């Protein structure tokens, strides 16, 4: 009696071959010394010390942080793991987190320090270091840079560089050619001024760009660019994340000038509704639309709401033809982003942009600032709401 047999080879999931490339290419950019992540993931021991937590946050989709629905539309710099990668992490943790052969461990990417664009044409640094108090509280603060240019400048990019990446959570960048932010700053004795949402000037800001950890700054190539009016200020609203220890930050703005004339100027369409009303004890969806009068190309989009926000859905439509723009099914106030399509997204004249924002103003929302829930209205502060 003869048998034809083969020997099965069982390869156990290990850190060096299977897990290190996932962690180093998706997590380490923020989770390394001096960056925004609260812990470092740069070697086997650091990762295994928090292996169960990593399994939990990847299984739940909380990390890596990316809240736009990638099945609806795609953007530059998307973060996320495949189902296979998530399952590998879970299997590895369940099997005791074996290291494997250290010689087979993946290399940590060469993350750029400073500018990711190049040498700037102009640089504006905060006049002094700002103390981020170690009180475990969010700190929202606006700082104003006076450019003092005697003529209009054509910009290729505006880049924010955090002085302390571990302290800076996110930033909004506003071009202010009316001096509103500077006037607001002059009314306070300290450097900069406190502002929980927006820029607290009463006007609608010209949001030129922003910053979140790992974000690729927008670069406007060819004949596309942004006009910076002569004498305009650049104001930044910085969100400093809660910290248990005192920290200091002295961030800066880099400007890059165009080397050819602008023929297609970057502008900002702002869809707002300052009459926003969200009834207490309701899950409420607010709707606005914007008819497009001339062909435009979308370079980025920034949905914005506050603590009781639940979701966004934005698309353009004309006679049944739909152009998806963005869906955020699980809004998180702490992870706002300028979402940039890989290619400019053309919206032809005659289309209408439809925007739906859903808010959960009920007791079941643990982030609701009011207990019991109260009617909510538009205002600058985080404890109110925006659309």
Give a quick account of the main beta sheet: strands, pairing sense, barrel closure.
5 strands, mixed
The secondary structure category is: mainly beta
Unreliable runs, pLDDT <50, ≥5 residues?
A: none
- Spatial extent as radius of gyration: 23 Å
What is the N-to-C order of secondary-structure elements (H for helix, E for strand)? HHHHEEEEEHEEEEEEEEEEEEEEE
Q: Tell me how many strands there are.
A: 20
Terminal CA distance reads 78 Å
Record the strand order, biggest sheet.
Answer: 1-11-4-8-12
Helicity level? 10-25%
Broad shape: globular
How large is the share of residues in beta strands?
25-35%
In quaternary terms, these chains amount to single chain
Mean pLDDT: 92
The number of helical elements comes to: 5
Summarize the topology:
Blueprint lengths: L14 H12 L17 H5 L2 H9 L23 H12 L27 E4 L4 E3 L6 E8 L6 E9 L6 E9 L3 H7 L6 E2 L11 E6 L12 E5 L4 E8 L6 E3 L2 E6 L6 E2 L11 E2 L3 E10 L4 E3 L10 E10 L2 E8 L16 E3 L4 E10 L14 E2 L10
Parallel strand pairs: 8-12
Antiparallel strand pairs: 1-11, 2-10, 3-6, 3-9, 4-8, 4-11, 5-7, 5-9, 13-20, 14-19, 15-18, 16-17, 16-19
Helix pairs in contact: 1-4, 3-4
How does this structure look, described?
This protein is mainly beta and 387 residues long. 12% of the residues lie in helices and 29% in strands. The chain has five helices and 20 strands. The protein has helices at residues 15-26, 44-48, 51-59, 83-94, 180-186; strands spanning 122-125, 130-132, 139-146, 153-161, 168-176, 193-194, 206-211, 224-228, 233-240, 247-249, 252-257, 264-265, 277-278, 282-291, 296-298, 309-318, 321-328, 345-347, 352-361, 376-377. A five-stranded mixed β-sheet has the order 1-11-4-8-12, with no helix packed on it. Strands 6-3-9-5-7 form a five-stranded antiparallel β-sheet, with helices on one face. Strands 14-19-16-17 form a four-stranded antiparallel β-sheet, with no helix packed on it. A hairpin with a 2-residue loop joins strand 16 (309-318) and strand 17. The longest helix has 12 residues, at 15-26. It is globular, with a radius of gyration of 23 Å.
